[in-house]
Amino acid sequence: MNASSLDSIPHRQGLGDTGSPAASGRHADAVRPPAGYWRLALPMAGKDGAILIDRRALVANLGLIVALLILGGLSLCLGSVTLAPLETTRALLGQGDAMNAFLVQELRLPRLAAGIATGAAFALSGCLMQTLARNRLATPGIIGIDNGATAFAVASVVGLGMSLAPPPLALAGAATATALTFGLAGGVGTRGYRFIVAGIGVGAVFGAVTQLMLARVDIDTANAAYPWTVGSLNARDPASLWALGAALVIGLAISRCIAQALNVLRFSDSVAAGLGIRVRHCRRGALMLSVGLTALAVAVAGPVGMVALIGPELARHVSSPRGVPLMGSALAGALVMVSADLAGRLMLAPLEIPVGIVTAVIGGPLLLWILLRPSRRIC
Amino acid sequence: MATTSEDDAPCDERRRPLVVPGLWLLGALCLLCLASLVIGAGEVGPLASLATLAGHPLGAAAASDEARFVILELRGPRTLIGLAVGAALGVAGALLQTVARNPLAEPGLLGVSAGSAFAIALALVLGASAATLRVSVAQLGALAGCAGVLAAGRLSALGQDPVRLVLTGAVLSGLLGALTSLLLMMDQRAADEIRFWLVGSLAGRRLSDLQAILPSLSLAAVITLSIARPLSALALGERVAVGLGHHPSRVRLLAIAVVALLVGAATAVAGPIAFVGLVVPFAARALAGPDIRRTLWLALLLGPIVVIAADIVARLAVRPSELSLGVITALIGAPVLVAVVRSRRLPSL
User: Fold this and answer.
1) What ipTM did this prediction achieve?
2) DSSP per-residue codes, A345-361
3) Å from A179 to nearest chain B CA?
4) What band does A4 get if pLDDT is binned at 50, 70 and 90?
5) Fold assignment, A56-372
């Protein structure tokens, strides 16, 4: 994960520099970057090729990665059987006690991977959706996309007898819910709160449909599906996890490409169009990416929608205010998911609290705070 | 059915007598009650039930013991409780919408029901038993939920934006719901006691449950009758109400107390049921116009109609098992929510 090139603004000298007097010198060393940036010359991009690195974003992302590593290590060590760090490392390498190796490699490691992947996917898609709707509350979980994906995925359990949560159905459900929400709110735009409440209505319908279908199956199937309908990393399915991992890699790459356009998209459409952004194009791409990531993450972990709100919020706080913190959101989301899962496993030790409940308890007050504090900018 | 013919009503709509729609609704309600008695998920079919109903008072031997038991001990109480719960939720919705001046204010959406569910879960975890205390605890929780969301609204002047208040309420009720499930995970005994109550359903309730809430329902009815006129004055604006000799803040407090009484009682019996308080006043206003006094009378009839109809569907949809009532009301209510939100100019109350 090369963080240095991720939240930076690609910047080619000569396309419009910051007006530094040395720019006429045509020599890379003579160019002073704007305050708060580092300038990194790229030899392969020609003499004048360089990128600007946002110093604060870089530091924040590195910090998030360190925190994620620490928490990931903790989550491998702690649990019903507590392992010392050394033992865990040996178990990871396949040495030492066979029981420990099984515990770490078969149980905790996939769980950690699922936590990181789903957290990153939820938070990245939340950040994309917030940016394109220009509304901090417009995360996929709140506007009903999570519930749509859940309903369709549960339909596969009920109707087709397939294994839990096949990704294609979750994708179809998420797309349906998105189309409904955007279609129903079409007249009023995405900016206001009406859009959100229309989404809440759509989400309520899909939630009821999920319950309806769960009531129709026999009790064992319903029980198997239950933790997943509140959001849990317990019932993950390897195929879905691989699909999510692949989508996450692609999604991060695409979001890297449209980061600059998204930075501009925060302003009004006319400003963005004036700066040469193909607004519709960019918005459609971001929307599809966001919906796809949400759906695949739901297919793995169920609707843990609050991460999509907490992750970007955390990223905005630690990261630079200049750009849309896409990479930071993904990292923060993974961090939130892993720590919520760890807390849920440890709090009532023999019992396990589904991660969806933990994030709802954390995310609720945060949402209230966003809503109730004296209104500043929403985006 | 009080028509307001002696009032100086400015528009024609207010003069339109309520008797005709009222009678229609009453007829529909009676039919639904009958349907609720004769239709069920079990073995006793409609024809046998009708025969039992017709034969029983005359002492005919045709009625089997089983049919009699099903109708008198299971479906009868269920129908009566549906009447009470529906009336309570419908009237509470109409009152809350008037007080909040917001056509989207609904006890379930604003977190009032979630508040009382949380209070009951908390009381159970702290050691109370399910049989005692339930109604008053639920009402206290409802009051807290009501006060919480309305105070939040006042705090940041959310009152001007109806949709934002609903969003706050949705967040509040989501949070309370998560806390409730957390509490229940910590205490298995409490979870076992209220798991079936928490999903919102009329199944398996007894007549004694109804008796427990009757005092609060009648108290609420008395208070509602006394504040109906000040409330309709308040709908014209604070100054008009003061000029007519009412005390707006006192009236509002009383109305909120009534909402808490009603929602707490309904939740204590049937569990949290959302969207009834949204659909019923919506339909009542469509039939009767904006005057709160007329709306309340119609809500009193429409509430039971919605709840009993939803209950019948809940019994039939997934035979032989039963569905929770909240699912059906959400399926009816969410489209109404979207429709209200979509209407470009929200009718402010």
Assistant:
1) 0.75
2) HHHTTTS---HHHHHHH
3) 14
4) very low
5) ABC transporter involved in vitamin B12 uptake, BtuC (1.10.3470)
